[in-house]
Specification:
The complex is a heterodimer. By secondary structure, chain A is of the alpha/beta class. Chain A is 38% helix and 19% strand. Chain A has a seven-stranded mixed beta sheet with strand order 7-6-8-9-10-14-15, with helices on one face. In chain A, strands 2-1-3-4-5 form a five-stranded parallel beta sheet, sandwiched between helices. A three-stranded antiparallel beta sheet of chain A has the order 17-18-19, with no helix packed on it. Chain A starts with a helix and ends in a 6-residue tail after the last strand. By secondary structure, chain B is mainly alpha-helical. In chain B, the strands form two sheets. In chain B, strands 4-3-2-1-5 form a five-stranded antiparallel beta sheet. In chain B, helix 2 runs parallel beside helix 4 (123-137), helix 6 runs antiparallel to helix 7 and helix 11 (291-308) packs across helix 18 (474-489). Classes of the chains: A alpha/beta, B mainly alpha. Chains A and B meet through strand 7, helix 7 and helix 8 of A and helix 4, helix 9, helix 10, helix 14 and helix 19 of B.
Chain lengths: 428, 550
Amino acid sequence: MRVHSRSMTACLLAAATAFCQVASAADTIKIGVLHSLSGTMAISETTLKDTILMMIAEQNKKGGVLGKKLEAVVVDPASNWPLFAEKAAQLLEKDKVSVVFGCWTSVSRKSVLPVFEKDNGLLFYPVQYEGEESSKNVIYTGAAPNQQAIPAVDYLMKDVGVKRWVLEGTDYVYPRTTNKILEAYLKQKGVKAADISINYTPFGFSDWQTRVAAIKKFGSAGKKTAVVSTINGDANVPFYKELGNQKISAEDIPVVAFSVGEEELSGLDTKPIVGELAAWNYFESINTPANKAFIAQWHTFIKNPKRTTNDPMEASYIGFNLWVKAVEKAKTTDTAKVIATLPGLETPNLTGGMAKVLPNHHITKPVYIGEVKADGQFNVVWKSAGEVPGDAWSDFLPGSKDIEADWVTLNCGNYNKVTKTCSGQNYK
Amino acid sequence: MKQLSKGSQWVLLLIALCGAFPALLKSQSPNDSGFIATLGELREASYSDKEAIVERLSKSGHPSVRAVLTGFLEDRLYFRNSDQKMFIVKTADADPLELIDPLTLKAAGSASADSMTKIGSNNGLRRVLRTTIAHYSLSSPDPAVRLDAVREMNKALDEPAIAMLRERAVVEKDAAVKKEIETGLALAALDSSDAGERLKAIATLRGSVSQDVRNRLAALLDKGSDGSYAESNESVRKAAAEAVQHIDSWRNFYSGVETLFFGLSLGSVLVLIAIGLAITFGVMGVINMAHGELMMLGAYTTYVVQTLMPGHIGLSILAAIPAAFLIAGLTGILLERTVIRFLYGRPLETLLATFGVSLILQQSVRSIFSALNRSVVTPDWMSGSLRINDALEITYNRLYIVIFTLIVFALLMLLLRRTRIGLDIRAVSQNRSMAKAMGIRTEWVDAMTFGLGSGIAGVAGVALSQLTNVGPNLGQAYIIDSFLVVVFGGVGNLWGSLIGGMSMGIVNKLLEPYAGAVLAKIFVLIGLILFIQIRPRGLFPPTGRASEDK
């Protein structure tokens, strides 16, 4: 799989360079791809790099944008957060790319933010994240907490009748912020503190016996209990295994996860976790013509019919199409003009709805809740009525309740409605 | 006239019969068509509607209800797109699907997977199905199935369920099932209007250790919003309070046993990863930073063996043990012959060189198997748990690993104490030059010792593949722990590693519920540092002449 994608990249790059030499560089539009191709995050991010390369190849087949061909500039920040900033600067200042698609972890995004704001670049960020941010130079095509975590909790509360909550997470910024928002939300909904249990474990934790036994005990108080899991990647496998071994089925204590998708399940024996839940804005199993075409295109491009598609890939797809639309509408690749054109633009997503860029630089997304099936795919058991607009600043945290992001009328990413002040871009 | 009338009687009879025959057929038919119609509603229904439909199906009393609902639970209920007809299929997600008629339960040909649509279910629906099917399993010839059925029914006791339990209680022969039925009936009797009945029920329930029973009894002691108790009778309340206390004390006891087992199982993992190191580091004095990667090789060997024997998952784990021992052992010997033997007596350089080797091993695994984790399937006999009673269940995979560790330890002890090579190893580690003078080929013994330690690391990898992710970073996660155990137990002493590993595991697990996973580990580390300050040579320091060399 790896070899394939490598050689494909090589091919594409070679093709692009060859083309450049023939056609002269001025006739292409450069697109930066800033995803880790080595290190711990390579597993997830390489897929997104390939997605963007596929989109570029597809667009070039249609004749490019504004009559010019697109040319990918792929760099490897190697899962090293400071290196992300360096590579971003290289893309913007040396390669003079028109747009960058990149980053996965929140810390890498925080690391490149100052660079994009200084050089007035444009970044499309394709992964679900903890919110509490809105930058003029970033379009967030992944889910904000109100497009993933909050609807999932609502589903459990209303449709499953959950009364007691375990918030189980890996010990880092995304789970801690998300759980803070969820705790505030649950308390606002009248859940007592005694009915919420919050716990964190280290990265790569594997000895889940005690934790799972504690969850079992917490869940046997006679009230319906659910686990909201922000457990990161690797630690999920032993976690789900232990749940299975201690005979906690999804029918008794369901687990809803925010970081477990098709790609993660492909490395896992899914039999014991059938029925466990995941909340995303896209599932590979959603049956729409657009999605079928996308999956087929992906399989041809990656030359492996078994590769899965996932939510961040759809977010990359949406981001790319939005950029193309904006450039065609603005009739220029000038970032300032493209950024000004983006809010209000719409493009179809893969699940039959429309993704619209909001003034806060987030997009509208449908929310789906799926149950894991034995074949590693998801069976959608709930979907939101229409698309949910992304909210940059959570309404459930005391610090961000009054803050609004609006790049159209207010021209500010952090505007306090009470004090009527703009605190500028928050990237401490 | 008479004859004619007789004849006409016959005719009438015939006509009547002719009329009755279809009617006789039809007497089944309204039920059948109703059943099929209800079943057909599943095609379009929402999940909550489906629950109502399942209830109606089960009330219809149709002979094939059980088969249909079981099929539904197992994702084997489909309808044909062309004529919307419902079918059960033999195996879900096969292509082509083998159809079974839901009425006659006879084979009805086959159809391609594309032409059929599955009726989906969700968690809530599956719970309803399971409870409903439990009613039918009550008369199963297998006592284990009956026991599960009663347990399911006890979770949701309603009138028909209680009636069925009562009926079954009379004929039930199996003691465990009988006891479970009694518990269920006693739970039902708690709602009786007769205080004497309720007292009797509490007396029965007092012996249980189930959390559900405890919750139910504790609910009797709840005060309503108007200040009155849920249970009006004082003496019943008293009995219930006493029973709750009794159950709680037993549950506490069993949860203590559970924690102890958790500690032992973590401890045995620690011992397993450390005894290989106890040989290479303890006996030979080589700081092998690639020890973790040797475990990783063992885990990958398990994966490869499993891929080679796809039909025999259970067997493949057993086959992987000697395979992992050989592969890790041979890698170890190669490592010793090509790198380590040139560095004896230079611990710092050994450390750096083996660290380099560990990176090489990791990267080569990445190149061969990709950076993605590989999934090792857990065989059926290693998943699930051994049920001691309602309060205590011991997971099989951990239980087997405890046993496995003890076996490996015993074999290793035997090898060192009772065999020629063991004698050589001990001789070389105690006094190298004397051993050499006695004609022992110390170089060969060194290689064998290192191979033995590495092989055991490989075997530990097989066990780890059942507990954690099989990926290139597997070794790094365990290397620190294994050094800690060896240092704590006393360098060069296998018994020390056993006792040290087990006690570290138990202390960790005792602390974890109070301090959390992160803090518990920190406390264990601080404790270890303090311990080393007092006893620098660990729990069981080497004694005699051998200790003076080091």
